[in-house]
Amino acid sequence: MMSGIPFSVYYQDNDIFVLLGCGISTSIIGALLWFFTRKTERTDIGKREGYLIVSLGWLVMSLFGAVPFVLHGSIPSYTDAFFEIMSGFTTTGASILDDIEALPHGLLFWRSISQWIGGMGIIVLSLAILPLLGIGGMQLYAAEVPGITKDKFHPRVKETAKRLWGIYVILTSLETILLMFAGMNFFDAINHSFTTLATGGFSTKNASIAYYTSPFIQYILIIFMFLAGTNFTLHYFALHRNFSFVKTNDEFKAYSLFILITAIVIMILHHPHLEISLEEKFRQSLFHVVSLVTTTGYVSSDYENWAIFSRIVFFVLLFIGGCAGSTGGSIKIVRHYLLFKNGFLELKRLVHPRAVIPVRVNGKAIPPEIISNVQAFFILYILIFVLSSIILSVTGLDFLTSIGASATCLGNVGPGIGTVGPVANFSHLPDFAKILLSFLMLVGRLELFTVLVIFSPSFWRR
Amino acid sequence: MMSGIPFSVYYQDNDIFVLLGCGISTSIIGALLWFFTRKTERTDIGKREGYLIVSLGWLVMSLFGAVPFVLHGSIPSYTDAFFEIMSGFTTTGASILDDIEALPHGLLFWRSISQWIGGMGIIVLSLAILPLLGIGGMQLYAAEVPGITKDKFHPRVKETAKRLWGIYVILTSLETILLMFAGMNFFDAINHSFTTLATGGFSTKNASIAYYTSPFIQYILIIFMFLAGTNFTLHYFALHRNFSFVKTNDEFKAYSLFILITAIVIMILHHPHLEISLEEKFRQSLFHVVSLVTTTGYVSSDYENWAIFSRIVFFVLLFIGGCAGSTGGSIKIVRHYLLFKNGFLELKRLVHPRAVIPVRVNGKAIPPEIISNVQAFFILYILIFVLSSIILSVTGLDFLTSIGASATCLGNVGPGIGTVGPVANFSHLPDFAKILLSFLMLVGRLELFTVLVIFSPSFWRR
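Output (structure tokens, whole complex):
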């Protein structure tokens, strides 16, 4: 909270004391909690405790993180502030702010860094912790992470975390420098770098990236969104010049190909009557495909008035997600890849009912339990999407807004369709809808099961 | 085709010679095909042949069935006529007719009886043939059908078919009598009985069931739609006074409860400002819930102007479907039940990772392969829905029409949303969309895999 104070001092903003006060109080509460529980410290943290710590961690951070906005008065309603900061920590990027630029720089920085912190949390969570909890196919990656071995919680998680965060920091710094080089000021550059690497999508401008007309800025963002949506272990291996690992990674290949093909198809079909250059058509199309697939949610033009085909595709992209082990949310490429391949092999199995035909990812046969895990994840994801769309419609939202809001929040993307489209925001939604959507962001960000398991009766038994 | 001629004679219609000519030519072609292939008859029909026979059967019937409409001139376009009769044989009920009542009685009867024939085909297919082919969970029912034993194709399929068809005929006759008793004339009564038992939904009236204001007619239809959406083996057991089997059937319980609860919730929420009696509210709500869940698709009022909540729920109902072994289409209750239960147990498995927790249906543990089968079915269903919605949008349809048309045709329901809503029809769609939707009806009706397997390379290898 206090990290943005230098900017507020520089720009002579009025949020210095609020940030200072909130920062100090939060630190004191944290210190007290630590002080009174330090002797009851347990080293035998089990799975149940794991689920609780992770879910409550995100919740408590958001409960405290919302306070500065309310105290400063720039977001008077606590529900709104909670929605905004939950959208930050879950790297969603959905906003209730009608005028982002009216916020003082310290609060803007807090808003952006919340996404960056959320992204850091997710990398470690998805590569080091969730696989050990056995969440919907995340086990696939446990073995691939340097320093992580199966069924061991402690050993080198700290080491791994440090390495991955190192890459995260390097990429963020690199993007900041490049964005400044392309014409952004330091404040905007570092804020956008924070929210790109986290695939968050908060911008410091009301018009999001449409504010910046420079093609260079857009291309830089496209590249870094793409990198942020890539499995961070691949960056690690690439930095160590182990390119064979990158080249043989099925998910990365599927991710790159899918983005390229979708961008080209949309480029061809999206606005045949528009008189703009081919380069700009390609850039606009690629920008939004990358932005939505990686679940960043930056907007460089209002695609709601593009061809209906593009709009449906953009809606479907809310369900794709980046690679596992990236900061991207939603269902994720590896799950789609596995399900698609399994569906295809299912046809083969019908023709050869006695043959055992395993699904292979990266050359390795995937055990049937994990496939069933991933299938259950997908089905649960669709179920949650459908149920929350229905509940949202009861609050009075129209059809498109209901499905758009629930899809984009569950997928941690940001922009939806209908009245929560790319150039709109979530401020007009009723409070109940905002609370439900905040919950959806959390559920989606923590791979569904981490949160839902807490609500199952068997979790609390004994 | 010739079965409707008596009505045309009675009502002095101009379609007598067309039906007679088409009927005789089709018979001659059939006889020739039989004559020239009778010596090459094979008794060792395998799975591959099974898929081909079933898929081509439906296709060839529709190719021939469309002819009378074109020759008579009441549906000038062959594409339109093909769509209409495919919608008949697949018991979908989607229509391209702007003025149904303008059709002569013989053709109307052909249109209705195509659904009845389709329904007959589906009962035998789903209870006797698909389980042996191992299609997405249909194996669950193989053991329960009287006279069917696992892995045996021939033995008593004929016997079973006769019994089930007996029940089908009895229910159809009973409904016809009751509808006449409630005020319909014989022609309308028998036509609606045909399309109710088949969960088809073709009506002889432009306004569908909204034409009949009598509450009795609506209640009779509700009851028979409900029965048509029930597993026909349950009717068989009930007729043999074996009620314990009916009482312990999980799918039937889930089906009844789901319909009742949904109808009550919609009754409470759908039009709070409308000044009609509670009975009528309940009846309207129940009618549409039963009509959509069983995939019949009759319409008794324009629910497109109900509350948004109801409309979203009605859209979601397109994905539910009747019980397995009924004439209902779509995903079907037993699959939802199994997936829902498995999702819930998945949470339990996360808490107790070492315990083996099987999914039980009707008290029996379901093998993991079948669960994975059903999961793959569900995912493939969603994939086909999404892809065809995208393709439809390229033909120029709007968002709601695209998703509505593909959902309702794939689910064999009938009415969609948008411009193919409950009081609209499919006549304004471009030819390409009609062909795609006809294909979707076939794919949905034959449980996806039966048709799709034919397009897999491994099907044709060796």
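The radius of gyration of chain B is 22 Å.
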